Amino acid sequence: LLSDLSIAGVKLLKCVEGQFNKAFILTMSRGDELVARLPNPNAGSAFYTIASEVATRHFLRDVMGIPIPRVYAWSAEPSNPVGAEYIIEEKARGEPLGKLWDGLSTARRLEIVDQVVDMEKKLATISFPKHGCIYYESDLKSRSLSYERLDIPIGSSSVSSLCAKSALPDFVIGPSTNPRFWEGERATMKLDRGPWNTAAEYAIAIGKNEQKWAESYAQPRMNFYRSLEHHEVPHDYISLLKRYVTLAPYLVSTSMSIEQANRISHPDLHLDNIFVDPTTSEITGIIDWQHVSASPTIMQRLYPQMLELSAAEQSDKYKDERILLDHYLDAVKEADPLRWKALYAELSEHQSEMELIEEVSGIMHQLQDEGLIPLGGMVRRQDYEHAKGVNDILKQKFVDLAENDEQRELHAEENGQRLFAAWLQLLSKQSPALPLRLANQHRRGKAQAIAVSGFSTGAYNICCTVTFDDGFRALVRFPILGRSRFRTEKTRNEISVMRYLSQQTNIPVPIVLGAGRWGCGPYIVMTFIEGTLLSQRVESSLGLDPTISGPGIENAFHAMAQIMLELSKPTFPCIGALVQESGVWKVVNRPLTLNMNELVRVGNIPPDKFAGGSFGNVLVSDPNFTVAGIIDWEYTYVAPDEFTYAAPWWLLFESPEAWEPDLNEFLSRYTPRLQLFLKVLRSCEDQQIQLQKMDDSQRLSDKMAQSFWFCLAARKSFMFDDIYWTLLDQKYFGRGSLEDRLLLLSQEELDGLEEIVPLKMQQARENVLEEHLTYDQFVDL
């Protein structure tokens, strides 16, 4: 190796090998030390492994500023004088942290943990467009492989402009180098190795890849944990894989949030992969970046391996380890609140729920021991009514034992989840035959529906795409039982809105082909609109930092401004739901709003918080954010003018609810975005006025600059108290106590309080958790 590279006067020392590489230390004649590494066969594809590691380290070192040893020479092809793929790099400066760790004080260890958090914070500043590994564009282009360029913001410029300015090569996101994609026969198979757009795509890909391998290479084998006589057969394994592929989209969140953001994270940050200055404890180098990828946050380690709790729980060592881990979690919460909120907050909530479940389990066992609840819940037919009566009494007493609303919410939510599971099982049993039949029924003609995609789940609907033999595609959508209340009314209203918009405006919406009911509720069949969600395009081009601005965000705001102006033009005499009678559009029904759905569906359970807001329902067709279509018009209704004039809450790509209780912090970040949006909106208004598509009196920008919180409180009842007491009360009534507020009332109003207060207190005492409807009653809705 050394002679072929024309390196002379070198002392060669073989290192302790890792799992995936052979390594040598080269001591030069002047005393400088280098490390030469050659990948083992189990490392996966040598080409992709070497090419990606070199590009990744180059990117992290020279673009992100992470302390990583420099690569001096490398080859991802065996056709070189060496005859093998290799990397020659500088030896990491300092000492391995594992060599020093036991001798460090707790204070020194905490300082190192802070440095690790700072590095992770730096890595988290970039959200990559896809899930995959980093390469040089030239390496993948030479092999005609698909990839995604890294033209994403970093600091005041983009990666591509920074690379050009610094004479760096162009970086791209390409296939994964994970060894399991290249193991054994898989190395020569055509598999889906990425890059992937979403975590759901990745989850499906690993299932389909394994299914391909099993169909070609799997053999019967004995599994003595399962049977001493019978083999496991490939057919059973393949059947399980097919079920997994069907379920995979439901196992991963589809909302655009920090959980789905693709970030770089070191997957194996143990003590020996961190080098420090033994005098100052400053981190001087981090090694072992092989197989590192940009991946969704939910697929990354919760904390570095160096902070694993390894000691017995009652030992002093465990207490020391716990101090470090808790310090790390607190530091992450402060340094990267979005990541903490996405991962650790949910785990903390899960722990609280587990404690509640354990308490409930103890109560249930006690009731069974006393004979109040039959074991297993089974009763004789003649005892059913009596048992049901006892159960209802105990159930209400149990609910009354709840210490707070959160515990009551848990009980209500479980009922809805059981209904959803039963409904989904029925839908799955009738698919794909049901979507094919409905699509054929409502698209009359010679063309026949021939293929159905897997189901995708949104907040309130499940959808699938049906393809016809002439290439036409339709979307079949089913409102979810247990999440959507008044499903028939909701479906009818949405159909009316889409038909009105297609007839009366220039807004591109799906064409309704037909609608009706199947065995378990309503459905809609509509045209499928091709495009990318604006929320995805914004995130991939701008990342998740709400302070970012630039051409990308202005293009997004321009698209939304055009839509809002178009929606503001029609006027109606009253508030409610649209309906067409004898060819005339009227407002004759109540407005079915999203807020109403949530209040009725779960009583006192606050709604889900979705990142992306209204951006999640807009499809765009090119990098300039040209709107291809707008989907999901459910819960749209004719609303008060004031709602149209109110500034949109989604300008930060997340709901103000996500900022509770610190709404002032939300406002400080929201205001600059609002100014930018109003600037874009005024430009759109000027253009439409010039084209005589609207007049000056129809401008929205002037009114939006003055109105926000009142309308938000009216539309989001879950936030009403926080908005009123935090932002409105003192603004309009000044500082003071509740007693001061009473002085604002007239004597007549004060006298009325004497009657209403006892009445409200009595209602609060009598308030019980509203029972959910039965399954049959739900289906009827």
TrEMBL record:
Belongs to the AIM9 family. It comes from Aspergillus ochraceoroseus. InterPro entries: Aminoglycoside_PTrfase, Kinase-like_dom_sf, Mito_inheritance_9. It comes from the Eukaryota. Residues 21-295 form the Aminoglycoside phosphotransferase domain. It is found in: Mitochondrion. This is Altered inheritance of mitochondria protein 9, mitochondrial. Pfam families: APH. GO terms for cellular component: mitochondrion. Keywords: Mitochondrion, Transit peptide. Its main location: mitochondrion.
